[in-house]
Sequence to fold (937 residues):
Amino acid sequence: MSDSIVVGFTVNGRRREVLTKPHHTLLEILREDLGLTGTKHGCELGECGACTVLVDGIPQLSCLLLPHQVEGKEITTVEGLAKSGDELHPLQEAFVEVGAVQCGYCTPGMLLTAKALLDENPAPSRQEIAEALSGNICRCTGYESITRAVELAARRMEV
Amino acid sequence: MRVVGKPLPKVDVRAKVTGSTLYADDLVLPDMLFCKLLRSPHPYARIKRVDVRGALEVEGVVAAITGDDLPIKYGILPVTQDEHALENEKVRYVGDPVAAVAAYDEETAALACERIVVEYEVLHPVTSIEEALSEPVDEPIHDYGGPANIHKMAALAFGDLESGFAQADHIREDVFFYEGNTHLPMEEHSAIASYVDGKLTLWSSTQTPHYVHRAVSKVMGLPMSAVRIVATPHGGGFGGKTDPFSHEMVVCKLAMVTGKPVKCTLTREEVFYAHRGRHPVLMWVRTGVKRDGKITAMHFKTALDGGAYGSYGVATTFYTGALQTATYDIPAYRFEGARVFTNKAPCGPKRGHGTPQPRFALELHLDKIAEDLGLDPVEVRRRNYVKPNTTTVNWLRITSCGLEEITNRVIQASGYHRRRRVEGHGMGFAVASYLSGAGLPIYWNKLPHSECQLKLDRGGVTAYCGATDIGQGSDTVIATVVAEELGLWPSDIRLVTGDTGLAPVDLGSYSSRVTFMAGNAALDAARKLRDLLVEVAAESMGCSPGEVEVGDGKIGALSFEETAQLAQERYGAISTAGSYRPPDLAGPYKGSGVGPSPAYSYSAAVVDLDADSKTGIVQVNKVWLAHDIGRSINPISVRGQVEGGVYMGLGEALMEEQAYRKALHKQPSMLDYKSLTFVDMPEVETILVETNDPEGPYGAKEVGQGPLLPVVPAVASAIHDALGVWVDQVPITPDKVLKALDAKVKGEAPRFGPKSFPDIPYPQCIKVDPPHVATQAV
Fold:
């Protein structure tokens, strides 16, 4: 077993330092060391998109990131999306309203990938939405309702 | 209706978008251990010796167990109790569990598994239906069934086949093959057990806590009263989490052995081995028709590759023959089915359970008959549709039936008959039917299939029901039904569901039964509570109960809370209970338990696609799906189920396959197991038709499984429309399209698919009089 290391980064605006192993992934650190279980795992091989988080605003697969890759970075997980307990992010509101959530297991990854898209492109076309989210697999919805939700959130965020 | 039929958000959805929903693997208990399973690397082998001493020497390991610690067999069906949590005599597929380790962390448990020594005597694996039918090289995979590696055979004949075929103007035979595929839930299976004060609790991502309850109780040798199963919020099932599983048994045992909570979460690769997915099915069908396309007789034969264990396979076998008659009036019908054991991951129920395969065959077969007769395939189907309030030749009771309307709607919306007729573009049409819950429980008894209790006190209304929300929205359905009756909002209702310790029994989220059965149980309980509150309010208001209106948080002139208080002052503690058991629907023959349902949903699909004759690549442009839902309790959720069903149907039609090279899974990863991504998914137009079923809650029927079914044949039909070739085998990958085109160019039959159906020693057919004959005899 390898020696432990300390890694420091910001999660949802809070500075954290974690004693971990150099081969542990950001996914494991978030879920097991920091108790942020909103980030999901579907394969742990970078194939499904469920574990997507934002690293300095860019969607990344937390199951493929090692501690040294996130040292000093700003990480956003699904727990950091809502402004408060009552006030959800417009994407979260739209997912709720449109019914873009069935089992909900892919939802955190979808939300964060969609957030990165809208941050960069506030009025994406359906094709652009599909391409941006094509690395996130959902087995329940057939993607249709997720597209509708991202479109709805985009319209609201533009206003 | 105040809340029924309204597009309200699901009651549990805010937790899911904020990441606060706790799925099984998110649960952490103090002093918890982590478990890993050691699985067989061989498809078929005798276990000579398992030595766990090396594992126990690893620092951080607390316990290691083998099959000797878990000797009692289990299985989902009472007739096929053929699984050990850890095998101790033979392994039957690559991935069969043989030992387990509990350690303080997962890495240590995995490392310790590598130190376990297992001595195998490798046997000759059976890898195909054909091999399973012939004399085995080594001993048969199981010590029951037979001959050879046949697990189960069924043979039924309804009505006068000979005279039916004699009356036909045209008889056609076809052979089809439907490859197996898997559920691929986003959430990997996970379970945690804790054993405290002689009571065992298992939290698991299961769709069927009640059946897990039975199995755990049996394997652990504990009374059911000492076992509690909690179905945690569910990250996707589709039928893949309806069996009791090895890892569930193992964590229970390890919790009892160590006295500590134990968790086991499968890796993605292990999920592919746990499987219980779509059976590969080879099918042969022979149908006689009149010149106008009216069916006079049908003979349908199936051969199912079941994989290594029984699972739901006996039921699946019957399902490959049961529902052909739920859409088409077939006056004489013969069905023969056989399931074989092979050394591959066990197959089981996936969305549509045993019916997408015959539906694919039947719909394409009817297309071909229409082509033979020079008739419109839609019209041929219309001429054969079952009618509402009839009984089929195999004794299925049809009540509400929207076949005509869904057909008209989907044909009209898609412009099917006005389609562009150019090479490379095509449209296909198909219909299907599915159960709103199995009419009979897995364990035959007279007990309710679903029970609901309502508690009313100063904390408001709590609904207790064993029903398990797997993302389909069953919690929302229960809350909506209760809220409708009590004049509240769904979000006002507190829910305790999927917990065998706290909530009364519901049989589980399978066979599309929950809205119909748990919905009816909740309705029963809610109407009793409403009557009680109305009576109290009427007395207080000095009027008759009939004059008291319920709604908007009020019972007559009183607020809901005031009425609740008056009711408690008068009666003390208040609770009501409701239950649902379907009417007795089984026909008078052995095997009639599979197929009956209190109501059938109907789905019709039109698929529009482009197919490239140079590359064989198929691009689906749009799918229209009309569904006879009976009535939508929540139209957002219904639409979601339709879209999800279309998506999964397209995956099965075009790319998804659980395929093997010899006995080794070819693609046990999400990258290699192809499924549709965002960019592959076409537009879906959902058309809901409400037929108001007389027995469904507010008229509702199922939607979880039906909409998948017509999509697969409609894709194949559209490819034929585009290129003039039949691909009689799914998934329809580009290579198969090209092979069919090659055959056409060479002047051979323009198709790709199986050439023949094997000889199977089916037993003598049980001859069953159809209902009208039987009634006359009485």
About this structure: Chain A has a mean pLDDT of 97. Chain A has six helices and five strands. The beta strands of chain A are 5-11, 14-20, 52-55, 58-61, 74-76.
